[in-house]
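Much of our argument rests on the idea that a fold can be written as discrete symbols. Part of our work consisted of pairing the sequence of a single chain with a tokenised description of its backbone. No coordinates are needed to read the tokens, only the vocabulary itself. The record that follows shows the chain in one-letter code together with its fold in token form.
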Amino acid sequence: MWDSLDPRADDPRELSPSDPRERHERDPRDVFTSGLDLPRGLERERVYVHEHEYELRGSEARALATIGAFRVVPASDLRDDQGRRGDVRHGDLERLRDAGLIRRIAPAEGQRRTALVTLSERGRDLLESHRQPDQEPAQRFYAGPSKSRELTHDAQLYRAYLRSADRLHAQGARVHRVVLDHDLKRDYQAFLQQGNRDRSDSDGRPTRTLDDVREWAQEHGLPMLDESVQFPDLRIEYEWPDGRRDIEDVEVLTLHYRGAHAAAKGQSGFTCYRGGGGGRVGGRSGQTSRGDKPFDPDLADEFLQ
């Protein structure tokens, strides 16, 4: 069941409509509107993007930013200011779709089928054109899903984020942004190909040595197994109350994980969640990315069986 990955799905306290500004400071669902000059309150305000004009309220801006940060999100995982589940036929999501800011894509597989939503190019333009220039680190937003064959997996990342973000918040941490595997892998490929830039005689093969790769992985807080860098599905960047910056790397494990690939993810030290049912099955959090982090062997055994 999809809901098993989100412990707050039936929690009536998850969004208090009393004061959106106060909630923005404490709720992980509001992180992605930080650094955006967009409405935060209950009343709709006019928002301009080039020749287009929209009327948005805080919950609609939050939905746009959340969808853009994760590429694709199940509609029912989103909430309005009253805590009601999102539905592309009603409420916030219906308005956003009618305005051409989001679009519906193929439903997720599983026992409960739900519509998935992603940003349109117009929706991403709205977010990008309302960034506050001094906001760092900046959250990246995407329009459209990555790969159609990975929709079911990618649609579970937001729930996994909420599980980790709630736990971090309970420990006093403040989340800054999430980074998807696409960005981490893009940076890695740029590093591998740096020696080939502006070379007409390049054959495209990486110019880096294994020692170079190990150093890069260490600098970026990523583990190496069998001489290969391991990348999480998403990285949560956050800050402790004393100002220390930290990361938590998260992986969603689905039934498609098999053999060596599954074993590598289990040994990576990532915080792992069972996709499509089940909870956290292991991971690390609570110290700097270069330090040793706690790992529950009982939960890890549950995954590796």
